[in-house]
Each structure stands twice: as C-alpha cells, then as structure tokens.
C-alpha cells in the first residue's frame, strides 16, 4: 500500500498484488473485515424471534453468533463454552439455550445456567464459562454486529440523517421478492471500486444515463464512507423534500452500500468468499405503500447486471502481465482514491 498518496493528482492505484495474492486477501480479512461492522438484519424482519443464529461473514470469517431478542437486542456467541459444539441451528423462541452435546444450558443473556458433570470442578463456573458478547449497533431499524468493530460508521449515519431528516427509515420493509444474492467471480474490492465512481455511467448504463444528470453528479468524501449524489434529468419525485435528486448512493467502508431513492432504499452487502469470488447480497426495502420500480431501461436489476459484467471483465484484465496499474482520474475517481486511502490505514 505504499503508492497511496493523499493528493489524488499524484496517486496511482494500489498494486495489483492486492487483488491477486492469497496473503493480501487474508491480510484484508484479518485487518479490515475483522474490524468492521456488518449489517445482519433489521428489527422488523427479526419480529418476535428470540434467538436468531447466523455466521458473521459466513465465507471468510465464519464466526457463529446469535442475535438474542428480549427487551433489547444483543449479540452473543453461538459456540458452547464446554467443547465448542454449536448451540442454536435455527431461529427459535426458547427461553434458554441448551447444548445438544452434553446438556449445558445458558440463559438468554449468555450466562451459564447449568453444567452437568461439572459439580466437582473447583472455581467453576467462572466468567469464561459464559457465552461472550459481541458488539451490536442499531441505526434506524438496521442491526449491525462486529467482532472488533473499530471502523466507526456513525459519521455516515449522521450524514444520512442530516440530509434526509424526514425520510421514513422506520417505515421500510424488507421485500424478499425483489431481493437476491449473486455470486460473482471477482475480487470484492473491484465491485466496490466500480460502485465508487459514476464515471462509467454513460458508457455502461445507457438507460440510467438518460434518467440522471451526469454533469451534476457529485462525490462527497466522508469519514469511512463516500456519498455520491445523482440528480435527475427530468422532473422527479423528491426524496424527503430534496430537489430533483434521483438517488443518494452511500458506501460504508468496507463493504456496504445504502442507496436511497424516492420509493425506498436498496442495500448491497459485498461479502468476500475468496480472493476471486464474492457474494453480493442485494436487499430491497421499499417504503410502506411503494415498491421498487421494475422493467424499465434503468431498473436496478438491469443496472446491477451491467455493473457485474464490467467487474468480471476487470477481474480477467487485472491478471494480465501487461497490466501494472493506472492513475486515478482527479475529476471522477476521488471515491476510489478515498477507498484506497482508508484501506491503507488498516493494512
Ligand atoms: S459441548 Fe456443549 S455441553 Fe459439551
Ligand atoms: Fe454502475
């Protein structure tokens, strides 16, 4: 990460080793994703479920966790403190947690309740016999968890709430039918980089380009994030009283995208599977009484596939011996530069 300078006019991209080497990939998982917040679900989707097991970044870090809902929501380990059997396999509403292996039970706050066979052990139980807590953060209805989440997302949430004070985030509902998961044979960062510039819009998204005003496309750098604002080229339904804005595209370091439209929001979670394979979770959250527009020249599923195609092309191109790295466009690629400079802080 030596080539990253703060002055975009002098900078060149990180070396291609970053995208191709196994050790660079592992380094990013350890030093970036391990320190990140990940969006898990939202309070409405959780509903009345008391125990919600999941894996934190299931293909890379793979940490078993459980969301526990009582009066409040917390996140605890899903691994038994005896000999590491997994505790909860499916969503359930039980009042305690029982290990199937040797019958140890835990209260919903993670404290050990009963441990058959350990009656004679001295100094037992101790703190280590309880299920550990993981950090949890709520923004609006969204629930984030982390292992060691030192990457602060609050500046971005503050920016969203400041720009869109009346947007009814609490009225968003997860729409399963318009949500989908993609597996893309490309490095996760290439997908993010493509997202972080509107430079490609007139070339790649001919339909979308008719709907937005490319000349006024704006990129705003935030602490641990980037906001891109696309103005509408025609009269457009306003987003929380903003004037003629087509979309606010927020990227939250390292792998979350929150796109805000007049009809609701869409979210992309970019999960690394390995150094050349990535899972993209596309989640649709329309506002009450609205729905995600479909079947148009600029609909999100069309734009998504156009993006994936260019990212796949870059994945193949970046492996070429002829390619060594490019310079950023100072006019259009500040978002990428910002991504790389945040990355370099953690690597
Ligand atoms: S592993 Fe859970 S009780 Fe033994
Ligand atoms: Fe795009």
Please provide a brief summary of the model.
The protein is of the alpha+beta class. The chain has helices spanning 17-20, 22-31, 43-46, 154-163, 188-195, 201-204, 206-211, 300-318, 334-346; strands at 37-42, 51-56, 63-69, 73-77, 96-98, 105-107, 112-114, 133-139, 142-146, 175-184, 218-222, 225-231, 245-252, 256-261, 264-274, 277-286. The chain has two domains: 1-35 and 154-347, Naphthalene 1,2-dioxygenase Alpha Subunit, Chain A, domain 1; 37-150, Rieske [2Fe-2S] iron-sulphur domain (Rieske Iron-sulfur Protein, 3-layer Sandwich).
CATH homologous superfamily title of the largest domain: Naphthalene 1,2-dioxygenase Alpha Subunit, Chain A, domain 1
CATH topology of the largest domain: Naphthalene 1,2-dioxygenase Alpha Subunit, Chain A, domain 1
How many helices does DSSP assign?
Answer: 9
CATH architect. name of the largest domain: Alpha-Beta Complex
Largest sheet: 7 strands, antiparallel
Write down how many β-strands occur, each being a DSSP E stretch of 2 or more residues: 16
């Amino acid at each position: 990460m030596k080539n990253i300078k703060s002055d975009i006019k002098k900078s060149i991209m990180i070396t291609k080793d970053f995208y191709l080497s196994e050790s660079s990939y592992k380094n990013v998982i350890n030093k970036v994703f391990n320190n990140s917040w990940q969006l898990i679900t939202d309070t409405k989707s959780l509903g009345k479920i008391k125990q919600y097991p999941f894996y934190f970044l299931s293909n890379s870090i793979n940490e078993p966790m459980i969301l526990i809902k009582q009066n409040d929501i917390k996140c605890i380990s899903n691994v038994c403190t005896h000999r590491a059997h997994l505790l909860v396999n499916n969503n359930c509403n039980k009042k305690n947690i029982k290990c199937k292996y040797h019958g140890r039970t835990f209260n919903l706050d993670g404290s050990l309740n009963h441990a058959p066979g350990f009656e004679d052990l001295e100094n037992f139980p101790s703190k280590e016999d309880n299920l550990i807590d993981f950090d949890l953060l709520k923004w609006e209805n969204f629930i984030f968890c982390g292992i060691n989440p030192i990457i602060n997302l609050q500046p971005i949430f503050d920016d969203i709430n400041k720009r869109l004070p009346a947007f009814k985030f609490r009225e968003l509902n997860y729409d399963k039918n318009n949500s989908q998961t993609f597996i893309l044979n490309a490095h996760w960062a290439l997908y993010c980089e493509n997202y972080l510039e509107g430079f490609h819009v007139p070339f790649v998204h001919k339909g979308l380009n008719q709907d937005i005003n490319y000349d006024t496309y704006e990129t705003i750098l935030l602490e641990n994030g980037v906001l891109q604002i696309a103005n509408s080229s025609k009269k457009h339904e306003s987003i929380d009283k903003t004037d003629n804005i087509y979309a606010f595209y927020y990227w939250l370091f390292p792998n979350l995208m929150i796109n805000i439209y007049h009809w609701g929001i869409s979210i992309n979670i970019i999960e690394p599977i390995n150094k050349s394979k990535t899972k993209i979770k596309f989640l649709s959250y329309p506002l009450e009484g609205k729905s995600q527009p479909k079947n148009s020249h600029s609909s999100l599923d069309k734009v998504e596939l156009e993006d994936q195609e260019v990212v796949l092309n870059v994945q193949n191109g970046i492996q070429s011996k002829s390619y060594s790295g490019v310079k950023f466009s100072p006019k259009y690629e500040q978002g990428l530069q910002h991504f790389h400079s945040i990355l370099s802080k953690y690597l």
